[in-house]
Amino acid sequence: MQYVSTRAAASAASSSSQQFSDILLGGLAADGGLFLPTAYPQVTGAELDAWRQLSYADLAYEILKKFATDIPEADLRALTAKTYTKEVYKNARKGEKASQITPLRVLEEGANGTKLVLQALSNGPTLAFKDMAMQLLGNLFEYTLAKHNAQLNIFGATSGDTGSAAEYAMRGKKGIRVFMLSPHKKMSAFQTAQMFSLQDPNIFNIAIEGVFDDAQDMVKAVSNDLPFKAKQKIGTVNSINWARVVAQVVYYFRGYLSATTSNDQKVSFTVPSGNFGNICAGHIARMMGLPIDKLVAATNENDVLDEFFRTGVYRVRKSSETYHTSSPSMDISKASNFERFIYDLVGRDGDRTRALFQKVETHGGFDLSGKPGSDGDEFKLVAKYGFKSGKSTHEDRLNTIRDVADDYGIVIDTHTADGIKVARENLEPGVTMIVLETALAAKFNETILDALGEDAERPEGFENIEDLPQKFVVMPPDVEKMKAYIAANTGL
Ligand SMILES: *Cc1c(COP(=O)(O)O)cnc(C)c1O
């Protein structure tokens, strides 16, 4: 399996392609595009039938081996077996089986043949769906680095979910250190405790005196110093990482296969969306031949994606137009994985994709509505890819959390509430609608208290997390001090 950049010129496509292991540790392609396979591997009906019986780990192996063709199969099987265990994904709700890794729960079967189902993706160590991919990435990184006797220093900024998922995936891994910046005293007590209570010597928590953007700017400044970056072997694990996207493809297959008994049954997914990483994996599963009917992107007030799927206009937001909401992991100004879908939408034309995303830089967006003066008319093809969308507000989230507690007896988090709200608007008779649960409520307790007047239940082991000893340093937003700190701790 070869990979190509979404911005590759038609003439360069074959000569510049790379294999899975070549792009595993990297981020953007050299031309600024994102990596995709030169063609999506296809699944047959017979394969789907056989996969119905598989454990999650074995299913992950079957799917990954189609993409990671340069990793020996026995090694890949060992990696997926080590990653997807009931010990790692142990935080299942009462009545759900941890051994299923992403258990389904039927919320409602309507008299008119509609069906609403929740797929739990948040049973991993940090109680959010990012563990599904990040835990695999940790094991893949360790495996690849050991093979080349190399090391990697992951450097990033977080306002919550991504940083903790990365730290829990990389803790104790040989050859890897994590330097994670977060805004000092700006994360919730729970999120802070989750990260800072890690005592592993390869995890470095750095609280920056400033806001998230200051931390993010430091990461950019340090990463732009290419000699420093090379010498210190600095890498990232952000949401454009191809291996993360591929690992997420697996749970769409699991969801479909668990919700159906034969391959002619219809299933749609509603996905709480921010950077388009999660739902991009759904798109890839569909392109591989998984019989997904609709892919519904649910956004909050930051509705960049909803706007595109309603109008064909992609318009990124300025910081002043980006709202801090009660579903903060979806508070994005642009969707960093969206380029992968646009590449497919414009017929895998790297030149067009490059021009469109250069226009995002110069003009803040592009317009594929087909109206006079627009950049193209491919919006008319969106329905063919199954995409739909919807959005919700803070008020909607509070109401949905209340409704779900009353009607189905479970407490959901704010991001999942965005998903359920939009899913309910897109139910169709004869089609099972699966909503992906992207976090557990305990992570966003402040809003749960507002909605229900009581605390969200905490999974076992998290009861007193705020009281554990914390390991972190506080630093000013000073790039030179940051570099000195990294160099001192890598010894490179
Ligand atoms: C990251 C995140 C999202 C958004 O996922 P994308 O892949 O960026 O679209 C939604 N919900 C939660 C809880 C998250 O952590």
From TrEMBL:
InterPro entries: Thr_synth_N (IPR029144), Thr_synth_N_sf (IPR037158), Thr_synthase-like (IPR004450), Threonine_Synthase (IPR051166), TrpB-like_PALP (IPR001926), TrpB-like_PALP_sf (IPR036052). Its cofactor is pyridoxal 5'-phosphate. GO terms for molecular function: threonine synthase activity. It comes from the Bacteria. Residues 2-84 form the Threonine synthase N-terminal domain. Residues 102-352 form the Tryptophan synthase beta chain-like PALP domain. Pfam families: PALP, THR4_C, Thr_synth_N. This is Threonine synthase. The modification N6-(pyridoxal phosphate)lysine is found at residue 130. Its EC number is 4.2.3.1. Keywords: Lyase, Pyridoxal phosphate. Belongs to the threonine synthase family. It comes from Duganella vulcania. SUPFAM superfamilies: Tryptophan synthase beta subunit-like PLP-dependent enzymes. GO terms for biological process: threonine biosynthetic process.
